[in-house]
Amino acid sequence: MATMKDVARLAGVSTSTVSHVINQNRYVSESITIRVKNAIEELNYAPSALARSLKMNRTNTIGMLLTTSNNPFYAEVVRGVERSCYERGYSLILCNTEGDLQRMNHSLETLLQKRVDGLLIMCTEVQGPSKNVLARYPAVPTVMMDWSPFESEGDIIQDNSFLGGEIATRYLIEAGFSRIACIAGPQDKSPARARHQGFIQAMTDGGINIYDDYIIFSDFEFAGGFESMNKLLSLPTPPEAIFAGNDAMAVGAYQAIYQKGLKVPDDISIIGYDDIDLSPYMIPPLTTIHQPKDKLGQQAVDQLIYRMDNPEANASVLVLTPELIERQSVKKY
């Protein structure tokens, strides 16, 4: 394999000149630049990313810890992160935690050993990463995405889930419903908790009775929505409308309704949350609360790069505004 010294020898220049041509960080005359590029092409020389990262003290690599889930929301967020990294000249290393603290620590150590410039964390673990792991490495800039499951000195980017829960519930009330149920997500996760609180607030403001049997806490997964909907349908007086804490649970609820021989929205109306790519292709298309997933990924990457360049800046919480997407899954009286 050719080295920079081989390129310099063939081009008749110093290794520093070859470096300047490759990195374009200092003026080199056009004639010399052509000689160096010809030598690079002739020798099929590839610059060492490792050597460059050691010299620049920057790998242009971002690590991301992500909980594995069947919920398409996560894949759609990662898509936005990957696109933003590519557009900004960074590579992304993605590690799944499987919702397991031990695996999270293992993945964290792997990313730090690879000298990532910063970390994006989007995990469900309530307990934070091992302090022993972090102590072995210099402080790495961190941005928490969607929720902050544990104490962190990094930045946090999330949507206004309380407002989104209010908007969804208010929409059902204004459609004429009074028997409204909520399939809420796991309450140890701040977005799920906030969406549930938004539901409670809108019901209270609207003067609508809140029945204990109509509140079910689930897991943000398809199966959770399916099981929760079956519980609601087995009640002596089932609800007329459902606010599902995310679209995955709404999809599961659709299946439970279908298996009972009922129809959305003729027999029961549903509104979801997240606006995943599948939502407009449901039958009928799902009314939902749009969470700007691409913007979440873009702002997370931008904030992390800013943090890498400004390590002393105060940590911040950036909040994205949810938006109602009206389709055909809610019947209006």
Number of strands: 12
- Using the alpha-carbon principal axes, give the shape: elongated
Largest sheet: 6 strands, parallel
- The number of helices is 12
- State the end-to-end distance: 74 Å
As laid out across the biggest beta sheet, the strand order is: 2-1-3-4-5-11
> Which series of helices and strands comes N to C?
HHHHEHEHEHEEHEHEHEHEEHEE
Radius of gyration: 26 Å
Mean pLDDT across every amino acid position:
88
Please give the share of residues in helix.
40-55%
SS-based structural class?
alpha/beta
Percent strand = 15-25%
Low-pLDDT sequence parts: none
InterPro entries: HTH_LacI (IPR000843), LacI/GalR-like_sensor (IPR046335), Lambda_DNA-bd_dom_sf (IPR010982), Peripla_BP_I (IPR028082), PurR_sensor_dom (IPR057343)
Domain HTH lacI-type: 2-56
Pfam family, one: Peripla_BP_3
GO molecular function: DNA-binding transcription factor activity; transcription cis-regulatory region binding
What does this entry show, briefly?
This protein is an alpha/beta fold. 44% of the residues lie in helices and 15% in strands.
Task: Give the tags.
single chain; 333 residues; alpha/beta; 6-stranded parallel β-sheet; 4-stranded parallel β-sheet; 12 helices; 12 strands; DNA-binding; Peripla_BP_I; transcription; repressor; Ribose operon repressor
Write structural notes for this entry.
This protein has helices at 4-11, 15-23, 30-43, 49-56, 72-87, 101-113, 131-135, 161-174, 190-205, 222-233, 247-259, 293-309; strands at residues 61-66, 91-96, 118-122, 142-145, 155-159, 180-184, 215-217, 241-244, 269-271, 288-290, 317-320, 323-325. It is of the alpha/beta class. It has a six-stranded parallel sheet with strand order 2-1-3-4-5-11, sandwiched between helices. A four-stranded parallel sheet has the order 7-6-8-9, with helices on both faces. The protein has a two-stranded antiparallel ribbon with strand order 10-12. Strand 1 (61-66), helix 5 and strand 2 form a beta-alpha-beta unit. The model has no long low-confidence stretch (mean pLDDT 88).
